[in-house]
Amino acid sequence: MPICKRDGFDLNQKEGKNETFHDNDQVFCCYITKRIFRDYENYFRHVMVINSTVWQCEATGKENLTFEEAVKSERAARKKMEQFKQSLRAPVLLVVEHARQSAMNTLNMMVAKFLRKRYFIGEEVTVAGKKNAVYTVVGIQLDKDAPEPGNGIYEDTDSLVYRLRPHKGDSGAEVEHPFKQLRRSRMEFNLENLNMFIKSNVSRVDGLLRPKPEAYKQYVTDPGVSFSTIFIGKMPRYSPAKIKKPDAKDAKKQSTLNKFIVADEATAAKSKAKAKSDAKSLAEEMERVRLEKEARLMEQERQKAEKKAQLMERVENECNLLLQKTDDLERTDQKLLPRYRKIHTLIPERLLGDAFMMREFMHTYTGLLSGIEVFRQNLSFYEMTRALSAREIAGPLSDILLVLLGTVFDLQKEEEEECAVTYGRERSSQLREPFLSMVQAAKSHLYARRHFSFKVNELPLDALTLSEVLRLHLLGSGAIVNEKAERWRVMYRNGYSSKEDPGLELRLQHAHILRTLKNHSVYQLKFRDIMLVIRCLMSQILTYSGTINLIEERMEQTAKAKQDLRALVVSENKRLAAVEINRKKLTQTHHLEMSSAEPEKREAMVEKLNKSIAELHAQSDQQHRKHEQQVLKLHSQLFNFLVYLGMDRCYRKYYVLESMPGIFVEHSPDSLDTCLEQPPANKSQLEIRQQATLPRSRKDLRLYLLKLYGEDDKKTRKRAKHSLENKENQEHRLNGSAEPMEVEADPPEAPTQFELMMCSGDKRNCIVHDPMNGQRQRWSYIYKHEEIEELIKGLNSNGLREFELLQELSVLRSLIEQHVKTCPVELLSLENEAMRQKFIATMESETHRKYGEANFGLPNGTDLNEVMRQHLVDRIIQFENDIYTGDLGRLKVKDMEKWRNDLLTGSYDPQCKLQWGPGGKLEDEAGSDNESHGTHEEDDVALLGKFARKPYRDPGLYLPASEDVESQSDSDDEEDKSTANAVSIPLAVHNMASALLQVEQAIGKRFLKEPYGMKKWDPKQEALRLACDSRLHQWEVSLMESTSFAQVFLHFNILHDCIQWRRSTNKSLCKICRRGSDPDKMLLCDECNAGTHMFCLKPKLRSVPQGNWYCNDCVKSLGLKNAQNEKDKKQAAKKKRKFIVEEEEDEPTDDEEEEDEEQEEEEKAEEDEEQNDDEEVEDDRSVESHSSSKVNGRTLRGSRTRPSKRLTSKEIEEAAGEEVESVEISDDASLTADEDTVEESDDEKVCQKCFYDGGEIKCVQCKLFFHLECAHLKRPPRTEFVCKTCKPVQHRQPRRRHSNMNGDDGPDEDEPKAKRSRNSVRLSIDKSARQSNGSSNNNNSSTSNNNHRRSGRRMNENLPLNSAALYDLLEQIMKHKAAWPFLRPVLTSEVPDYHQIIKAPMDLAKIKSKLNMGSYQLNEELLSDIQLVFRNCDLYNVEGNEIYDAGCQLERFVIDRCKDMQLPFRPSDMNGQVEAC
């Protein structure tokens, strides 16, 4: 406020500032100071003072200003002071407080100098040379070269270095700049705004300038600022000023302005007296009129205010009553809800919710579940019903559990790849649950590593081993892990820890399930317990990071869809508002033009307006349709999985399942509250219907009620005047013959609390809170449009629960109605026995193809223990037979047939004393070790004998000893049946384990794989052999301690997988050509059982050698020697030299390089075989077409139907081909030829036509090699050969190739044997030998060989079989994402007319099986079957079909791969435009 430097400003002290002025009063107003005066003299005196230059600006101290100039100066100073930099205010006040100066100018200069030399922490600065880059000072430090000040005060601030952080970009990046490069904005800091800030926030205390307390508190004390927090070092020291007190003589009194602006006292007294007399009379009159008017107006206002207050109170109460949302059970305006259809299925009602949840889970997480393909990407309702109603071993229940448990194991392996997980054995310091169970859970993992040498998630998993693997998994759930893994889980699994494992909760709350699984299979549990296990597995899947990421991704998609939906609605509202504005503008413009237009043009203008408005609406409608499409798309994104709609008044839950069309209603027995003591009475339905017509928004409802009650008030006044009601009553009373009045019919009877689904107040008879009420429907459903409409009308929008349900139904209504149209009513309404039987028959037919042998051929209803026992007997006998016939071992019993028959009949007799485990424990000693469990300790020692002295202890022993007490009877599940053979089950399990033990001990140790055998058998490695024996002994111990058939099956599968089946004689393939053909010409190694064709050896063998024969690998690696000595070899070579001279000339016998290459190919092929062992061994068990026989003391693989025979010299010569006449050369000449040809290897003889090695002729000019067939020659020329390139042009005419159709030898017989390729002889022998075995006419056979002789290398169209490459190609095809329709045969139940159209069906599984069985001889044969798959796809499916598109995509992939691998492939019509490769 401006300061007046003179006295006399406020001269009208007698006029009160709150004086009342009337409408007719004459006043004088000063607009500069906003003052009103009744007396002109006071007004004049006031104007004179404010226009005098006696004012001073309070902010700047400027003097000799008018009042208006002083006000403007203060405003400008305040604006500049606000621009002063915020981060400099605290340093300024700290300096002012520390300086203790008395002169304002001195203080200003001191503070300005202090600020110019420093920048403070938190201050925003710029750097020279970097425009538009703003940094914040985050640290100050001394330059490395500058000395540290002794007193801690940094006066030389030029040597300081400031650490800055940019505002934009990477917030973590910091830079350092010296003092000289930093700048402040001139607008934020200059002397002018600094002086104004100091003057405004500084006051003089005892002669010294000190900060004002409120300013110091705001900028320094409250933020906690000190000099050390904003700068480095200490505050500089300043010399305080001397306090100078003003002298009393200098204090002069201000002069007054009265002498300039006040008239003489006499004149003023007269005018004042006259004004008083006039004003007094006028004031009295005015006061009287004013009081009367005020009294009248006040009374009217009071009455109006009372009426308005009463009306508003009434309206607000009504609005609150009609619009306020309260608990549904406390409402009095409930309408009737529709009655729903009860669900009747074969699944027990109490399991129906869990069953739906399981199916929805598998449908939602299809891409995450392992092995879900067994359900064709979705679990059908028939499969779900069969799983929860039938007792089967290999039924849909086993597939469900296998999918869930396999997914858990896969997720565990993914976690172990991310972070190494080890299970601790240390005891927890907390001796309470769940920590005790977590310690015991780790022992389950140690048990698997001890007795199986595998992790739990690496154990073989199928329908027969499922029960035991599941038991071990549940027992090991929640085990304590290492600290690193625990931290990883907390970080990547949303804070998950082992004590939160659902399996641990199942172990603690339902331990009876795990105890039952020890002696029984999971399929024998109660269905309620089975569902608990399934829920546990699903909960475990949801805890892993992969599932969490998927859920978070879906939540983000849902949130984004909701955000886009809101934005879309807002933009649509804006668009509609813009359309309405444009329409109004067109109308206004039209009216303006119409007012000035001529009458004859007005009609045209009206038509133009209507056309413009129509175009505007048409465009708006088009955009609105586009908006609706976008809204529908977003709604579909929100409606792509399980939707929980909400609850109604009686706590019934509403669901929409993607896997099952329909709205499903669950009335759970779990009550969320208790019965009300005094349930409210419901209004009549008429009142409720009237209430439903009221506006729903509070604003519209308030206006409606105000209007309604206002009209009621007017009607009330009219009734008071006319008394119509009394008059009508008198007329009815006097005129008895009057017509009767229309009387409304009796209102319908009010619905009961039960019909309204409301609380009755009686716990024993309440539809809401009584779970045993017979009228409750635990599960029901609706699906019709009318039922959904009735539900929406019956919901109360003012109920807390039903409002949310109504909102969800309203938003998703169109999608829900479209989804529920296909509701399978016939599956959910099995109300009578006939419908149930029909459903069962349909279920059997739909699932028979997949689960027709669910109990392995035994009739339904057979005890599951008996099913597993018989199947285990069959597997053990087949296993023993495979071992015996494959020369992998022999059972050590006296009578093999008796042993097998006893096992089949159930009267098992081992025929010997059984021994097992470390030290060969006898069967009689088995019970002694199990009694010493109390001293069991788990400590790590050396691998050999690690558990030698440790007694066996099952991890299930650590479960609580007390049995679980079920609080609720399981009326829906099957009753527990005590079978007659319950006592004999442990004995049967022991017998099966003993039989399997005998088979295991019969297997040769060299035929076992890791961990029970060596990777490569070497008897010299004693330590490794003992370690393998130790592991196998632990396997034997746990086998003989088995208490269920599932445990025996688990041991069986582990042993089966650890056998080197590729070394079985039933599976022997030639190590050189990789084929299983010609079994009667295949030699088997006496050490490794590997097969080799006699004609594939180098040199070839004519007959089976005497004594033991070992393959080349065993000779090299183990140092074994064949029975023939060097002398025998030389004699045999001389005898056969005439016949096999072609081989000796092309390849030396000691060619180490070629042997190494063949060994590499053999090892690669063996690896491919090991990958397919599991698939091939099943086929080999059923095919008993080959057996081993002994010839001359040698094992020779041959056909059972065709006895093996020794090849004679004549047969070998016939097989070599009689079309070539033998050239009479001596043995010495043959040897000379051999030595000459050894120098040139096949790698050097590359044909320049087909670029395959094995060239037979060489051009004498260019020195290049060619095949005879590539050079269009039948035999090597007798003269020097010149290729076409080197011949003159006139002689370059192709020679015709003649074929001898009559079987005459012709000139081809002159071909010398020494010039033929080694590969040619091998192929000719192979083909001739096969033909000679099947034909009695040797002449015809030889003629055929002569006419169809092939060269050593084939052209691209007829390549020999490359098994390794084709295996790789087939694996890539089957793993392609588009291969899913072609992985298995097409079922007639799925596509009834498929086999009517497709006469030659083919699938990738069949192709792989044929490749494994050696059915293909050429590459083109396998590729032809792949082409057949795509031709069938093109023939049956229509373009645009999902399977057609998948086939087209997969065929393009095959085309690309075949081009890369240079394999011939002809595409189908689906990709006909692609060039064949």
Describe this structure in words.
- The protein has 1477 residues and is α+β, with helices and mostly antiparallel strands.
- The chain has 48 helices and 24 strands.
- The longest helix has 59 residues, at 265-323.
- The radius of gyration is 52 Å and the shape is extended.
DSSP strand tally: 24
Count the DSSP helices: 48
Q: Could you say which overall geometry the principal axes of the C-alpha atoms support?
A: extended
The secondary-structure class comes to alpha+beta
**Mean of residue pLDDT values:** 76
Strand content: 5-15%
Brief descriptors of the model:
47% helix, 5-stranded antiparallel sheet, extended, alpha+beta, 48 helices, 1477 residues
Task: Please outline what is shown here.
The chain is α+β, with helices and mostly antiparallel strands and 1477 residues long. It is built from 48 helices and 24 strands. The radius of gyration is 52 Å and the shape is extended.
Sequence-ordered SSE layout with sheet pairings:
Layout: E1 3-4, E2 28-30, E3 35-37, H1 40-50, E4 55-56, H2 67-82, H3 89-99, H4 104-116, E5 124-127, E6 130-142, E7 160-166, E8 175-178, E9 182-183, H5 191-201, E10 202-205, E11 208-211, H6 213-221, H7 227-230, H8 258-261, H9 265-323, E12 341-342, H10 349-364, H11 381-387, H12 396-418, H13 435-451, H14 466-476, H15 483-492, H16 502-509, H17 511-519, H18 527-541, H19 545-596, H20 599-638, E13 643-647, E14 653-656, E15 663-666, H21 685-692, H22 698-722, H23 724-734, E16 779-782, H24 785-794, H25 800-811, H26 813-819, H27 825-828, H28 833-851, H29 864-885, H30 896-905, E17 915-916, E18 921-922, H31 926-929, H32 984-1002, H33 1022-1040, H34 1045-1057, E19 1082-1084, E20 1091-1093, H35 1112-1118, H36 1126-1136, H37 1141-1146, H38 1152-1171, H39 1173-1182, E21 1186-1191, E22 1194-1199, H40 1209-1216, H41 1227-1238, E23 1257-1258, E24 1265-1266, H42 1318-1334, H43 1338-1347, H44 1363-1375, H45 1394-1397, H46 1404-1412, H47 1419-1436, H48 1442-1461
Antiparallel strand pairs: 1-4, 2-3, 5-6, 5-9, 6-7, 7-8, 10-11, 12-16, 13-14, 14-15, 15-16, 17-18, 19-20, 19-22, 21-22, 23-24
